[in-house]
C-alpha cells in the first residue's frame, strides 16, 4: 500500500511539474533565468521542429470573443531558426461561408478551427498546432508582479463605453498596474492603428521579461502558476510545450529569432477600416524571415535605376502569374466590383489600344475614371494584333493585378508580372480584340 502511495505521489509530482512549466510558457519566451533552465532540463522532452504554430490572444471584453493578438511561429531546429510573423487583427480576408471580413472575426464565428484555416490560407502554409492565451489574465499577472515598467511614447487617450474601454495613459517612463497594462495593450486609435498596437505588444513582452527575470521577482513565480494555467490553452502535448519553451529560450539568447509582420496598407471600405495585405511582399517576408530561406540577391538593387535597353529577363523578373498566386489572390477578392475599385484607386494605370479600334482606349479610360481609378496615360500599343486583353503589373503585385482582372472580367492567365520597382506606374492595361464590345466593366 505504501509503494502504491509513493507511486501516486511520484505521478502527481511529475504531473505538477509538467503543468507548472507548461503554464509559464509565455514567460520562458523571453526569460534568461538559470532557475527556469534548470526546471526545463529535468523533464524528458519531445522535440518540436518543422512546425508552424499559431499563437493568439482572446479578448472577451465584448459580447462576442475575438482573436486579438495573432502570430505564427515557425520552428526549425535543423538550422537553428525560429521565425515569427504578426498578423494585424484587421487584415481583410475571405472566410468560407461568411465572406470578406477581418481575420480576427474568424474565432468569433467558428472558433479555433476557422481561425487556423484562415491564417493558413493567408500565409499559404499549414498550421500544425495552436496556443491560445486569455488576454484578461494579464491584469492579474501584472498586479501580482506589483506593476511593470513601460516607457510610453505618447499620450494614449480613448473612450469607448460600448466596448468597456476608458484609456488614459500619459507619455513617459512609468510603472503600469494591471488595468493600465490592459489599456496600454488595447489602445490602437491613432494613425498607426494595429501596427502601433503590435509594436506596443512587443514592448510589453520585453518589459515583462525584464521584470520577471529580476532575482526578487523570480521568487514570486509559484504564486503566478494558477494564473498562468488559466491563461493558456493548446493542442500541443505537455512534452512538446516543454521542448518549444526550451527551444525558444535558447534561440532568443542566441538571437536566432526573426520577426516580421504581414505587409500591407490601411483601406477604408464602406466606412470600415481594414488592413489590406500585400501578398507579393508577404511571400517575400514568409520565405526570407519566417521560414529563413536565403535567396539569391537581385543583380540590380531596387534603389538603383535600371540601365536603359539592356534589361534581361532575370533582372526584370518578367513572368506569367502562377496558379498558386491565383488561388491565394482569390481569397482577397470579393464579387462586389465597387469595393474592388475602391482598393485600386491609388494605382497609377495606363491604357493602351492593342486592337486598333479608334477611340476605344479613351472610352475605356473614361469609364474607369468614373470608378475613381487613376488613369495617367492613354496611348496606342506597339501593334494592333492583341487578340486578348492583357494586364501588366510592373511592380510584381499579383494581388492588385488579380483584383483588376476580377473587376473587369479578364482571364487571370492574361496577367503578366514584371519586377521594376522604379517604374512610374503600377499597371498597364492593353485592350485586345476580345474586349472591343465588353460592357461588364460597368
Q: How does this structure look, described?
A:
This protein has 442 residues and is an alpha/beta fold. Helices cover 39% and strands 24% of the residues. It has 17 helices and 20 strands. Strand 8 and strand 9 form a beta hairpin. Helix 1 crosses helix 10, helix 1 packs across helix 11 and helix 7 runs antiparallel to helix 8. The longest helix is centred in the N-terminal third of the chain and has 22 residues.
Poorly predicted regions: 7-45, 295-313
Q: What form results from the Cα inertia axes? A: elongated
- Tell me the major beta sheet: 6 strands, mixed
Strand order of the biggest β-sheet? 11-6-1-2-3-12
Question: What key phrases describe this protein's structure?
Answer:
single chain; 442 residues; alpha/beta; six-stranded mixed sheet; 17 helices; 20 strands
List the helices and strands and how they pair.
Blueprint: H1 2-23, H2 25-28, H3 34-41, E1 51-59, E2 66-76, E3 81-86, E4 92-95, E5 99-102, H4 105-110, H5 112-123, E6 129-134, H6 137-144, E7 148-152, E8 156-160, E9 165-169, E10 172-176, H7 178-186, H8 193-212, H9 215-218, H10 221-231, E11 232-234, H11 238-253, E12 257-261, E13 264-269, E14 272-277, H12 279-290, H13 313-316, E15 319-320, H14 323-330, H15 337-343, E16 348-353, H16 360-370, E17 374-380, E18 390-393, H17 398-408, E19 415-417, E20 427-431
Summarize, please.
With 442 residues, this protein is of the alpha/beta class. 39% of the residues lie in helices and 24% in strands. A hairpin with a 3-residue loop joins strand 4 (92-95) and strand 5.
Amino acid at each position: 500500500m505504501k509503494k502504491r502511495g509513493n507511486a501516486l505521489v511520484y505521478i502527481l509530482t511529475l504531473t505538477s511539474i509538467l503543468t507548472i512549466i507548461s503554464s509559464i510558457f509565455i514567460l520562458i519566451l523571453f526569460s534568461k533565468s538559470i532557475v527556469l533552465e534548470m526546471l526545463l532540463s529535468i523533464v524528458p522532452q519531445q522535440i518540436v521542429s518543422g512546425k508552424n504554430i499559431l499563437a493568439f490572444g482572446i479578448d472577451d471584453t465584448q459580447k462576442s470573443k475575438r482573436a486579438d493578438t495573432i502570430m505564427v511561429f515557425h520552428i526549425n531546429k535543423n538550422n537553428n531558426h525560429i521565425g515569427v510573423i504578426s498578423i494585424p487583427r484587421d487584415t481583410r480576408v475571405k472566410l468560407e461561408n461568411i465572406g470578406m471580413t477581418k481575420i480576427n472575426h474568424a474565432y468569433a464565428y467558428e472558433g479555433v478551427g476557422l481561425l487556423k484555416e484562415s491564417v493558413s490560407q493567408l500565409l499559404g502554409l499549414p498550421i500544425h498546432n495552436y496556443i491560445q492565451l486569455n488576454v484578461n489574465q494579464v491584469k492579474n499577472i501584472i498586479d501580482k508582479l506589483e506593476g511593470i515598467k513601460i516607457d510610453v511614447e505618447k499620450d494614449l487617450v480613448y473612450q469607448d463605453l460600448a466596448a468597456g474601454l476608458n484609456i488614459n495613459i500619459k507619455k513617459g517612463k512609468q510603472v503600469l498596474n494591471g488595468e493600465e497594462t490592459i489599456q496600454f495593450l488595447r489602445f490602437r486609435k491613432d494613425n498607426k492603428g494595429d501596427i502601433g498596437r503590435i509594436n506596443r505588444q512587443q514592448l510589453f513582452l520585453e518589459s515583462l521579461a525584464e521584470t520577471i527575470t529580476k532575482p526578487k521577482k523570480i521568487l514570486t513565480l509559484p504564486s503566478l502558476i494558477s494564473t498562468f494555467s488559466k491563461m493558456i490553452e493548446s493542442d500541443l502535448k505537455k512534452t512538446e510545450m516543454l521542448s518549444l519553451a526550451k527551444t525558444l529560450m535558447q534561440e532568443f539568447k542566441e538571437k536566432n529569432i526573426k520577426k516580421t509582420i504581414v505587409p500591407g496598407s490601411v483601406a477604408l471600405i464602406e466606412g470600415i477600416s481594414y488592413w489590406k495585405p500585400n501578398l507579393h511582399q508577404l511571400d517575400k517576408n514568409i520565405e526570407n524571415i519566417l521560414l529563413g530561406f536565403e535567396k539569391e540577391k537581385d543583380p540590380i538593387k531596387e534603389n538603383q535605376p535600371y540601365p536603359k535597353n539592356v534589361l534581361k529577363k532575370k533582372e526584370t523578373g518578367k513572368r506569367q502569374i502562377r496558379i498558386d498566386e491565383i488561388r491565394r489572390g482569390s481569397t482577397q477578392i470579393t464579387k462586389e466590383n465597387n469595393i474592388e475599385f475602391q482598393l485600386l484607386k491609388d494605382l497609377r494605370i495606363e491604357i493602351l489600344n492593342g486592337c486598333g479600334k479608334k477611340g476605344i482606349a479613351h472610352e475605356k479610360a473614361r469609364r474607369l475614371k468614373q470608378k475613381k481609378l487613376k488613369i495617367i496615360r492613354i496611348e496606342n500599343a506597339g501593334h494592333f494584333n492583341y487578340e486578348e486583353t492583357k494586364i501588366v503589373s510592373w511592380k510584381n503585385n499579383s494581388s492588385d493585378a488579380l483584383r483588376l482582372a476580377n473587376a473587369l472580367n479578364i482571364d487571370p492567365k492574361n496577367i503578366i508580372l514584371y519586377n521594376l520597382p522604379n517604374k512610374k506606374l503600377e499597371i498597364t492595361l492593353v485592350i485586345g480584340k476580345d474586349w472591343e464590345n465588353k460592357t461588364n466593366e460597368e
